[in-house]
């Protein structure tokens, strides 16, 4: 009886604690705030209006990069060609404006089509040939790189109209337009996954693809859709990057791989799929930008930047496993205690 | 002497072993029995170091044994023949046989293949296989692979050999040969721990039988003093179910009819029907075609010839969403963890997944309030023990998970249900509840049910008609259960005659 009572009590305790920590964004919000305070204390220029504006602009673009990765991670996949899709979008849009002299709107539409099409190709190959996302996107990342280099010959496109760079450089109420745009997008994404059948089905596919299939969900469709969404967000991020820097650099996207995983995973997107957390992504994008920006501010050696990012990503993905190991240890201890009590009472 | 002392093993949501103590002696054939989910496999995995127990210890000849891995167990002269086939298909037979101790065949740092092949040949002969040890294992039959696993275990010269249902994939002839080998091992003072569901086999072969029930140790008895019924009583905790639930109001209306269904290489000309309010049992061994047929009907797989009629009209089913949403046909899988539930997701979502599209307003927004109401009422109806509807299904016990797995199709409004092995891995209390539930679905709600089960008492108690499957054919039909024309023993004998 004792064990049973104890178990019940444990279940109760667990639930109150669980409900608190189930809001997994709490951790990332705390980490972001802490880091913000530390950098404010150690650097004078960190809190300047100019720097904060800049951080927000970069974070906004990171949100789109992370969403691009999150879309496929939630169906249990990954997109290693994310940065290359972004790069290809940049080159195509740049080409449209600089070489062909087309209006920005046409360039944007062309860029988005390229992004969605690339994502569709990834998803189509995965589902039709039953290949995993790792090999498919690894291969297509090289294809896209080749296209980027072939079309641009390595040169940036610099003749970008003012109307295009407006979004990337201006602000509203002191907050960059880019961040407003990102916030609205996050709200829409959050809404889709909570309130629409399509969003729910995509999450269910990632939660357990076999169970989703057996529940009448066409999982091939959801996987293709997720990949199109991934390409779409990569394209948006690429276009925003042009609008921010004022030129279309073929090298865009080269560092997106670690950023996309870091922001998405630290933001609470489960690597095994089925879970997305838009509030988490919002904060973790700031966390990563601050790490990069703050390191410059405190005069850390910038050449080691990738190592810091990688270490943070590793820590983030390890947290779940560490948590599980601790749980197993605690369960064993509790059982031992319970058993001892039983023997004593006898 | 191998002593198991006060072993407790906990998995999330279920106590797989609860304070189990047992002793195995050299030179005896000791059967370990229990229903599915009783904890036999878990206990074997703890003895062989694959799992670690939370509590308790294992003593080998009085000394505490701390097996941290399977290799540790092998080093202490304990080995196991697992139920699943675990071979490396790309490697040769000889390589597979000596795999775990290939280091012993080193000669100047490189493997002495001649010695390896000689050893392998010797043990192949012992298990009655006439194949060259240098052949690749990939193309062999399941039974041959199983014999090679046995040869592998024998070649380790272990003093304690655990066999987890070794005869389940063997033919009668091969099984007889295995029994001969086990007897020889006993003469060589080896202890064989033998897990089997075949009670007759156990009574004939074993010296002692120990029984587990729901993770607890029930007792150990000498086989000589036991009858089949005694063992069953120990296993299920009561006399073999000769429970008569009463009559179902089966209507003459045929809700599902299968005519001349064939799938090349599997089924040839399958015919049967299901009446409204009926529970139709599918009996057969695993792999006899029951689940495969269910999946054909559900549209998971497509068939080559034949027709399926639902409510008298020909049904064109090409996908699960067809069977579910157009024809009200639901399939409750035998693998609730792999195919039935999204374990990390909430109870709520697992109940409502099949009706999301019905809860949309004209703008496509899901009505969360309505969703919550439906899920909560299902939790009450199915008596799911969960702290909140938002709790993840994975943290519930097996029985409660199964309730969700069944309830999901009731929310979807299916009126024909195919229920596949509903009580595998659930405890006795939940099992009884699930039986009651299936019965009520047919009796009170007029659902038509196909029940697939290897659990004979379960099948005979619930079904009103039974089809027997063997090698993708329906070999026989047992009728008259609704009128209770025959007792349990008679029905089970008649099923046995078709097997």
Q: Any overview of this molecule?
A:
The complex is a heterodimer of chains A (346) and B (499). Chain A has 346 residues and is mainly alpha-helical. Chain A has a single domain (55-334), classed as ABC transporter involved in vitamin B12 uptake, BtuC, CATH 1.10.3470. Chain A is 78% helix and 1% strand. Chain A is built from 14 helices and 2 strands, in the order H-H-H-H-H-H-H-E-E-H-H-H-H-H-H-H. Chain A has helices at 2-22, 25-42, 49-73, 82-99, 104-128, 133-152, 162-169, 177-195, 197-207, 209-214, 219-245, 256-266, 278-297, 305-345; strands spanning 171-172, 175-176. Chain A has a two-stranded antiparallel ribbon with strand order 1-2. In chain A, helix 3 (49-73) crosses helix 13 (278-297) and helix 12 crosses helix 13. Chain A starts with a helix and ends with a helix. Chain B is α/β, with parallel strands linked by helices and 499 residues long. Chain B folds into 2 domains: 2-236, P-loop containing nucleotide triphosphate hydrolases (Rossmann fold); 254-498, P-loop containing nucleotide triphosphate hydrolases (Rossmann fold, 3-Layer(aba) Sandwich), CATH 3.40.50. Chain B is 34% helix and 25% strand. Chain B is built from 17 helices and 22 strands. In chain B, the strands form 5 sheets. A 6-stranded mixed β-sheet of chain B has the order 6-9-10-3-11-12, sandwiched between helices. The model of chain B has no long low-confidence stretch (mean pLDDT 83). Chains A and B meet through helix 1, helix 9, helix 10 and helix 14 of A and helix 10 and helix 11 of B.
